[in-house]
Amino acid sequence: MSVVAEQIIKLNEELPAEVKLVAVSKYHPAEAIEQAYCVGQRIFGESKVQEVVAKAQVLPKDIQWHFIGHLQRNKVKQLLPHVALIHSVDSLRLLETINEESQRIGKVTDILLQLHVAQEESKYGFTIEECLSAAKSGFFDKSTNVRVVGVMGMATFTDDTQQIEREFGVVQYIFDKLKNGVFADNPYFKELSIGMSDDYQIAISKGSTLVRIGSAIFGNRIYK
Ligand SMILES: *Cc1c(COP(=O)(O)O)cnc(C)c1O
User: Which of 42, 40, 44, 45 is nearest to 5 (CA)?
Assistant: First the structure.
């Protein structure tokens, strides 16, 4: 059996039943995805629109493509026909574009609101105040072709596990607050996307429902 297949099986044994595995296949070839697919993996995470489009063309149609990278508004049109969930919606303008384009093609697109909790300025996302004020202004209600199904967060890139715990704790707090508050009438709002190869155990302890794991499955990425 391939190393990829072995890692998928091992992770599935380890992850609690309510946690879904997003196998982050960005920068890895279609063959690697097939090895994971053969042992039952169906959700794959990608961060470049061209890569999703190219891979979706050659790989089985029952794969659910999750988009996890920073999404430019001019790429939304290309992405939408292929994508099952966009984790990385980080501005209201982007959400608006996704809504308009979804309307045009007669689709309802599932998205997560990306939250900014890391120390790094470079990371994208909303603050809790921005989420609450958008909800109160009716922005999500009027975006009828977008379904907000939860939130996504990324911790600071650090070895300090206490800091990661703290930051995931903040994401969990915001998730609970939105779920029990402004999204209380939305039964689809239930996904908490936190955790990557190095911090998914911490993320699970903070209530993660979607872990996004790349290098622990596919090995190191070679950026070309
Ligand atoms: C690349 C990436 C991952 C996977 O990271 P690994 O450390 O390889 O598991 C998860 N989430 C996002 C948003 C990413 O860009």
Answer: 40
Find the radius of gyration of the CA atoms of the chain. 17
Q: Report which ligand 1 atom has the smallest distance to the Cα of 152.
A: 13
- Integer Cα distance of 7 and 161 in angstroms: 23
Give the atom of ligand 1 at the shortest distance from the alpha carbon of 26: 1
Q: Where does the chain have alpha helices with state H?
A: 3-14, 30-37, 49-58, 76-79, 92-105, 128-136, 139-142, 161-180, 200-205, 215-218
What is the tens place of the pLDDT at every residue in 140-173?
999 999 999 999 999 999 999 999 999 999 999 9
- Alpha-carbon distance 152 to 60, whole Å? 26
Angle (CA) 99 92 76, round 5°: 45
CA distances from 131 to 107, 116, 147, 192, 194 (A): 23, 11, 14, 15, 18
Query: What would the pLDDT profile of 92-119 be if each residue is shown by its tens digit?
Result: 999 999 999 999 999 999 999 999 998 8
Take atom 6 of ligand 1 and give the residue whose Cα is closest: 214
Q: Which segments of 60-219 does DSSP mark as H helices, in order? A: 76-79, 92-105, 128-136, 139-142, 161-180, 200-205, 215-218
Nearest CA to ligand 1 atom 7: 197
Whole-number Å distance, alpha carbon 73 to ligand 1 midpoint, is 21
What region does 191 belong to: left with phi over 0, alpha with psi -120 to 50, or beta? beta
Which atom of ligand 1 approaches the CA of 88 most closely?
A: 13
